[in-house]
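Final report, Chapter 2: Outcomes

The project's central promise was a pipeline that accepts a single protein chain and returns its three-dimensional structure in a standardized token representation, suitable for archiving and comparison. That pipeline is now operational. To close this chapter, we reproduce one record exactly as it appears in the project archive, with the input sequence first and the structure output second.
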Amino acid sequence: MLKFIQNLLNINVLLAGKIRGVQAYDEAIAYHSAKDYKAAFPLMLESAMLGNPQAMSILGTMYLLGQGTKEDGGQAVFWLGKAIAANFADAESVLGMAYATGKAGVKIDIPKATQLLTLAAERGEEQSARMLEMMQKGEGMFKSLKVRKNRPDRG
């Protein structure tokens, strides 16, 4: 009987955490939409820590762009990665772009960027498809990428 009561209490704690995660997310989104990133940030962090994949993705983006906090590429990669691991596919595009551009000090990793952007583009995410195209054609900030691809090996 004691084990049964402990299980019920554990379920109640989990449900309370889920409910609070949704509440914090809803409040954070309201602040974020109003561009009050300082107010949104702690609530988004709370929701992400309580397991909300959408909050993880937005929190990662907030770290990437310095919204309500200083830019932090390491935290951006961490939270976007957690969102992807939790099957929130929208984070693939943002993380792919971070790896492609090196935003917020993220180490540029073109193979990872290509993989993530391809997954997002295959789901119909147009911005990812455009960035992939720019990378392949060596346009804009990816001009040196095309030069490197076409340069013969020296050694």
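Archive annotation: Residues 147-155 have pLDDT under 50 and may be disordered.
This record, like all others produced under the grant, will remain available to the consortium after the project formally closes.
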